[in-house]
Design brief:
The structure is a single chain. This protein has 258 residues and is of the alpha/beta class. The protein has one domain: 3-Layer(aba) Sandwich (Rossmann fold), CATH 3.40.50. The chain has helices at residues 33-41, 66-79, 92-103, 123-136, 139-149, 152-157, 159-170, 174-186, 213-223, 239-242, 244-257, and strands spanning 8-11, 18-22, 45-49, 85-90, 108-114, 200-205, 228-232. The longest helix is centred in the N-terminal third of the chain and has 14 residues, at 66-79. The protein is globular and about 45 Å long.
Length: 258
């Protein structure tokens, strides 16, 4: 399968360093809204996009491979005539930019890997979730998705945000979501991580039950040469939305270091 032309939104100065933001399974590019204005204000050109099968991007037939998602990003950079970019990804987006860090290092200025994993089993869980979504639609997993994305206290005190994110998940095409579930179930990038040479920051949510800091984030940081791990308190899987100020501060600090 070849690359698809993903839906994108580009903001910020045309001559600014480019930051590409890659999103989570079940999200669209709106999940990065808290980060856009601070990045643009610091002079960055911010590129957000919808993963294939999500949002306004095409929904090609399965199977999807991680290299397909990576090829979509390379095609996006080519389309925008961007030679090198900073890449930040959360969850599935983090898996995608890890793959890019291994396979197209010449296109990468730095990496930020948020609330993600290099191997996220068991595969049977992902196969079952894909089956459920194909049978019942993404609305059937939206409530559970928000339960993973936000801590319970935050969701209770911000019901409008919880509902916004619930609707975001429910709007994802079932086939796109399911095909990405199957991709995650097959993924294992652990042995490839030492090949990454880009300056890398790994950010974890302290309360993330989907990709816990000790089980998932720390092994990534320890495997990538020179990588640094930061754990953000009171943050679950969509930490960039629940604790936007701290995630944005860490991202900006890393970009300016590199």
């Amino acid at each position: 399968m070849g690359a698809v032309r993903v839906h994108r939104v580009v903001e910020g100065p045309e001559d600014g360093p480019v930051v590409v933001l890659a999103g989570s399974l079940g999200s669209d590019l709106r999940m990065w809204e808290p980060q856009v204005a601070p990045l643009v204000e610091r002079g960055y050109r911010v590129v957000r996009y919808d993963t294939r099968g999500h949002g306004g991007s095409p929904v090609p037939p399965p199977p999807y491979r991680l290299e397909d998602l990576g090829a979509d990003v390379v095609a996006l950079l080519d389309d925008l005539e961007v030679e090198r970019a900073h890449l930040a990804g959360l969850s599935l987006g983090g898996m995608t930019v890890m793959w890019l860090g291994v396979h197209v290092p010449d296109r990468i200025a730095s990496l930020v890997l948020c609330c993600t994993s290099a191997k996220l089993g068991p595969q049977s869980m992902w196969v079952e979730r894909a089956r459920k979504v194909r049978a019942e639609g993404t609305a059937s997993v939206a409530e559970a998705g928000v339960g993973r994305w936000l801590t319970e206290p935050y969701a209770k005190s911000h019901p409008d945000v919880a509902e916004f994110l619930r609707a975001m998940i429910a709007a994802v095409p079932a086939e796109g979501y399911a095909a990405c579930c199957e991709l995650i179930g097959r993924m294992d990038q652990l042995d490839a991580l030492p090949k990454i040479t880009a300056p890398t920051l790994v950010i974890a949510g302290a309360d993330d039950l989907a990709t816990s800091p000790e089980e998932h984030s720390r092994p990534i940081a320890e495997a990538i040469p020179g990588a640094r791990l930061e754990v953000v308190a009171n943050a679950s899987h969509l930490g960039s939305y629940e604790q936007p100020a701290e995630f944005t501060r860490l991202i900006l600090e890393h970009l300016e270091r590199t």
